[in-house]
Amino acid sequence: MSSPMIRTVVVIIVLLTNTFELNYAQASSSAYDAALAESLDADDYGMKNYVLVVLTTGNNDISDTEQKSRLFRGHFANMARLAKEKKLVLAGPLMEADPRRGLFIYNVATIEEAELLVNTDPAVKAGIFNYELTKLYSSAALLMVNGIHQTIQKIAIE
User: Which of 40, 50, 58 shows the shortest CA–CA distance to 114?
Assistant: First the structure.
């Protein structure tokens, strides 16, 4: 390429880069809601610390269907209680992932706090599930999932 053409390409790249940076800066600053970020305990990136729990198949295979049903009702009731207390951010089964069975995301900063919470689950206590705990750094907006979910849930899981 000739020198004038190189200068033209460089000028175009600089202009495009500056336009992108300006648009990006405007979009991120105009969308920022300081009160919401503070209410969710978000850092400057809109993120916060959680603990991810992966439930795995436990060592206790309970064959009594009534006992198993009672334990799973307790499992769901415990999740509902923790969600209401704003400790459980997200939960759900893992599909086709044996021996991994499900996950929780807890609104706590330490593994120790999460271990206390997961051990309140009757299915964990009974050995139906084992668990693995990992720190997770993710969007503080996850804290809004339960409130939104209630508005779209037609039938409660019991």
Answer: 50
pTM: 0.79
**Three-state DSSP class for 87?**
coil
- Give pLDDT < 50 ranges for the chain: 1, 11, 14, 21-22, 26
Question: Residues 131, 124: contact at Cβ < 8 Å?
Answer: yes
Helix, strand and coil content of the chain, in percent to the nearest 5, comes to 50, 20, 25
List, for residues 20-38, the tens digit of each pLDDT value. Answer: 544 555 455 578 999 999 9
Backbone angles phi, psi at 59, to 5 degrees: -85, -15
As a whole number of angstroms, the distance between CA 141 and CA 31 comes to 14
The answer to whether residues 96 and 153 touch, using CB atoms and an 8 Å cutoff, is no
